[in-house]
Amino acid sequence: MNENDAGRHREKTATETVAVPSSLLHKMSEVALGFEAFQDELEDYFLSQDPAFLEQMRQARAHHRKGETRPLDDLKRELCTE
Predict the structure, then answer these.
(1) Measuring CA to CA, how many Å separate 31 from each of 11, 21, 25, 26, 51?
(2) Helix-strand-coil split of the chain, %, nearest 5
(3) Residues whose CB is less than 8 angstroms from the CB of residue 76 and which lie 6 or more positions away in sequence, other chains included
(4) 71 FRET partner, CA 20 to 30 A, in 7, 30, 38, 52?
């Protein structure tokens, strides 16, 4: 593709629009939300089957019950998120 063809191609694609019915956009949005929910549930399922993750959660719960916690601000500073 020479420079003239590239320029014409750029102009053509930059000015073209495609009309999409709002009902179709609404359906696409619903599908995207449904897929996001599916991904969340699938991730939860995988975590619920992971023995290492479950053990970490048991340990975290035990520490929490014993009052072995830290202020959130301290953790943020430690992780350099502030």
Answers:
(1) 33, 16, 10, 9, 32
(2) 75, 0, 25
(3) 82
(4) 52
Per-residue pLDDT of the chain (82 residues; tens, 9 = 90+): 666 666 666 666 666 888 999 999 999 999 999 999 999 999 999 999 999 999 999 999 999 999 999 999 998 999 987 6
Residue 4 CB contacts under 8 Å (≥ 6 apart), including other chains: none
User: Among 73, 55, 51, 74, which residue's Cα sits nearest to residue 63?
Assistant: 55
Cα dist from 18 to 15, 27, 45, 61, whole Å: 10, 17, 40, 53
Note whether 82 and 76 are within 8 A (CB).
yes
